[in-house]
Amino acid sequence: MTIAEQLTDDMKASMKAGDTARTGVVRLLRSSMKYEEIKLGHPLEEAEALKVLQREAKQRRDSIDAYKAAGRDDLVSQEESELKLISHYLPEALSESEVSAIVDEVIAETGATDMKQMGAVIGGVMKRAGAKAEGGLVSKLVREKLAS
After folding, report:
1. Are the CB atoms for 124 and 109 separated by under 8 Å?
2. Which of 9, 87, 119, 135 has its CA 20 to 30 A from that of 106?
3. What is the mean pLDDT of each run of 10 residues along the chain (148 residues)?
4. Which CATH superfamily is domain 3-87 in?
5. Beta-carbon neighbour count of residue 48 at 10 Å?
6. Is the dihedral of CA 39, 40, 45, 47 positive or negative?
7. What CA–CA distance (Å, rounded) separates 52 from 27?
8. Which residues 6+ apart lie within 8 Å of 34 measured at CB?
9. What's the predicted TM-score (pTM) here?
C-alpha cells in the first residue's frame, strides 16, 4: 500500500471515529502531497511522497523550537502531537551512530578533506540514507568530521 493510499484509508477511519485532530493532520498531509503533484506535473512516487512527509515533519520541528523559545507551551504540545502523527508515516529513522558510519564511508569514497566538499558528502549520504536520515543531523555530522 502506498503512502497516499494509507493516508486516504486513515482519513476515512479517523473521520468515522470522530478523531478531529488526526483527521486534520491527515488532510493536511494529503493536501501537501496534492500540491506537490501539481507542482511536479505527475503522480508522486514513494520517494517523492516521503520527501513531502519529511518536509512537513521538519516544519513541525522548527515550529516546536520557535514556540519553545517564545514560551508558547500550548502551541508546542499541538505541534508535537502533529509531529507524532506525521512520524507514523515516515520510515524508522537511523540512529546517530548509523548516520555517522554512512558519513565516514562517503567521506572515504569521495576523498573529501575540507569544508569545500561538504555539499558532495551530504548529497552522497542523503542518497544512501534517503528518508531514514534527518538532514540537520547529516549536516552536523559532516561538518564535524570535515572540520577535524
Report:
1. yes
2. 87
3. 91 94 94 95 91 92 94 92 92 84 86 82 85 82 83
4. Uncharacterised protein YqeY/AIM41, N-terminal domain (1.10.1510.10)
5. 15
6. negative
7. 13
8. none
9. 0.76
